[in-house]
Design a protein that fits this description.
Length: about 375
């Protein structure tokens, strides 16, 4: 038994003993039909390295994830050049290319707030654990670009990271770079991060520098950034963008040019993270569903829930009204449930709020209620 589970179990036993023999122990009902992807354990190497967060551990005072538990998609390249000589080259359609030393970026870094990263490939297969939030420090890309004079036809910025791995991954292409419109960088507040949760980035998270694009899928959050290239409207999409075209909701036919890519933004989304079982004094078992909501504009996060497609929607009972963090907890209790299989579905029923994945049932999870 892991330490935390042990503490939970002993706390539950203590509560049970205190309430007397009539109360059932609170416990967690596992989600059904999700396979066996390991949680809280780093697996694989190089391009294939993965680590998924156990979302069931989220609580109001634990919404920022320590770096050693933050999800990983792609491990640090084994051919990473020495950090002592790391430079960031800014070139392309500029009057005069510049090379920025790491020290310059570190000196100019300032707090950038709390932001969430979600892998565009986050899914039920990894229990939705390819998602985490942290606080970040760094330098806004927009202010960094003030160091160069852009040529008149410059409209876009390619951000590229070091990505040479000895260990490849059959499912992905190596070489990571994304092209952003200058306006997209400004509107999102994209920044080059040097710190996470007040400490230098860990190497798996992009040390010494990574891009963070608030509100966008993490495939755009290039790690080990060493190159920024100013480009124009004719710039072709990169291989990395093409690899993620489907998962960032581009048209069925992958756009050829970077300018034809839609912003890879995350719509409002919500997922249950645990189903708690509570003993009630009348002998029935009550269930409390806890989850998170993130993405979109936080104002549009009015959630509804149903426990099977044939039931009607009800508003989620508890949800923060004015969320400030990148993700927010919600909870919903039901006094009792007949034995059976339940499918938890969530929805925002406001046609003005776009919820592509949520509306498609992508984040639905199931659990079983057994006869007592
Ligand atoms: N250089 C580089 N940057 C990269 C990637 C990569 O393979 N190489 N993967 C991207 C993807 S798909 C994701 S989801 C995030 C994961 O960031 P994390 O491992 O710090 O959580 O990094 C992004 N940045
Ligand atoms: Mo990703």
């Amino acid at each position: 038994m892991r330490r935390r589970r042990f503490l939970e179990a002993s706390a539950a036993a203590a509560v049970g003993a205190w309430l007397g023999p009539f109360a059932k122990l609170p416990g967690i009902v596992p989600f059904a039909g999700e396979g066996s992807f390991p949680l809280e354990r780093t697996i694989g190497a190089g391009l294939g390295r993965r680590r998924a967060l156990d979302l069931s551990t989220l609580s109001g005072d634990a919404l920022l994830i320590p770096q050693d538990r933050f999800f990983i998609r792609t491990g640090s390249p084994d051919r990473l050049p020495p950090i002592a000589s790391w430079t960031l080259r800014v070139h392309g359609l500029v009057e005069e290319p510049v090379e920025l030393a790491l020290e310059t970026l570190k000196r100019e870094a300032s707090p950038q707030g709390a932001h969430l990263l979600e892998c565009a490939g986050n899914s039920r297969a990894a229990h939705f654990g390819l998602m985490s939030a942290a606080t970040w420090s760094g330098v806004k890309l927009e202010s960094l670009l003030e160091r160069v004079r852009l040529r008149p036809r410059t409209t876009r910025v390619l951000v590229s990271g070091f990505d040479e791995h000895k260990v490849l991954d059959p499912g992905s292409v190596s070489g990571a770079s994304w092209i952003f419109g200058l306006d997209e960088l400004r509107e999102s507040g994209a920044f080059l991060a040097t710190e996470m949760n007040g400490a230098p980035l860990r190497v798996d998270h992009g040390y010494p520098i990574r891009l963070v694009v608030p509100g966008w899928y993490a495939c755009a959050a290039i790690k080990w950034v060493n190159e920024i290239v100013l480009v124009d409207e004719e710039a072709p999409a990169t291989d990395h963008m093409r690899e993620y075209a489907g998962r960032t909701h581009q048209d069925a036919e992958t756009p050829r040019l970077a300018r034809d890519f839609r912003p890879a933004t995350i719509d409002v989304a919500a997922v249950p993270v645990r189903v708690e079982r509570h003993g009630a004094t009348d002998g029935r078992t009550a269930y409390r569903i806890v989850g998170v909501v993130w993405g979109g504009a936080s104002a549009g996060r009015q959630l509804n829930i149903r426990l099977n497609a044939d039931l009607s929607w009800s508003p989620v009972q508890e949800i923060e009204r004015n969320p400030t963090g990148p993700w927010t907890l919600w909870s919903h209790s039901v006094p009792s449930l007949a034995p059976g299989r339940y499918r938890i579905e969530l929805a925002v029923r406001d046609p003005a709020v776009r919820t592509r994945r949520l509306a498609a049932g992508f984040y639905a999870r199931e659990f079983l209620v057994q006869d007592d």
